[in-house]
Amino acid sequence: MFTTLTTTIKSRQNLREKLHLTRTRKFESMPLSIDGITFYTTHLLTYSPHNEPHLMGFMNNCPLPVIKNDDILVLKYRYIVTLNTLIYALQSTLQSCAVVDPKGHLIFLLPHLLSRCRSVTVYTFESEKYAAENEQLYATLGAGAVITTNFGSLNKFDAVFSEIPLPFCDNKRLFGRFSYLSASPPILPDNIKELPLSPDEIYPVLAGLYYVCDFKKLGLLRADGL
After folding, report:
1. To which H or E segment does residue 19 belong?
2. Strands 37-46 and 25-34, how do they pair?
3. What SS3 state is found at 223?
4. Is 23 exposed, middle or buried, given 0-12, 13-18 or 19+ CB atoms closer than 10 A?
């Protein structure tokens, strides 16, 4: 189980609210279920723009994993959705990909790339970490990436995924948190589409189901377009 955590800042409308006779902040949680998996969505409803200590207090005291939109799990899931969307858009023309990942933060992308691209090159200083993952993937997929520390031109690849800023990248298809990741919600399966989720809850819910609840078929979702 897990809970998402989003914040809605309200304006004071009626007299009671304007006289500050209502609570400044209130957490509201709702249980939801999908395929036998139960999770929660939690909203902080607040009249104040200053909520960090209260959010931190909730996260520290909550017995469940808490997933916000800026969580690392959401970032990782957005990389996967972006890759899926790119593969769908380019179809058979996506032959080679590069991963620029000095510190090994994008290693989770490797199985997704190797199962769908003919050629993958990884530029990293974490060669041993990638080599161990590469060896396991070769045993299961029969494919492996080229791992190197010698950074060269990226123009020869069909797409590039980067964990660092690349302001002078010579490849037009550059994806990453410092360049571009799919921001629009993925095309949702019907059982998730029916859940009462606000737009800012969709990615945290999907990331929680995928990473915390091991709902791995969500790793195939894509957005409408890049």
Report:
1. none
2. antiparallel
3. coil
4. exposed
The whole-number average pLDDT for the span 154-180 is 94
| pLDDT, tens digit (0-9, with 9 covering 90-100), for 96-132 | 999 999 999 999 999 999 988 889 999 999 999 999 9
Token pair belonging to 190: 């019907």
Contact 176, 161 (CB under 8 A): yes
Q: DSSP secondary structure string, 131-197? A: HHHHHHHHHHHS---EEES-----TTSSEEEESS--TT-S-S-EESTTS----SPP---HHHHTS--
Average pLDDT of the chain to the nearest whole number: 91
* Percentage of the chain lying above the pLDDT 90 cut: 76
Q: What is the distance between the alpha carbons of residues 198 and 28, in angstroms, rounded to a whole number?
A: 14
DSSP per-residue letters across 90-101: HGGG--EEEEE-
User: What is the number of other CB atoms lying within 10 angstroms of the CB of residue 7?
Assistant: 18
Q: Are 127 and 150 in contact (CB under 8 A)?
A: no
For helices 199-207 and 72-90, the axis angle rounded to 10 degrees is 90
Instruction: For residue 21, name the pLDDT band (cuts at 50, 70, 90).
Output: low
Residue of 91, 113, 92, 128 whose CA lies nearest to 175: 113
Q: With CA atoms as reference, report the closest residue to 204 among 18, 87, 39.
A: 39
pTM of the model: 0.91
Q: What three-state secondary structure class fits 86?
A: helix
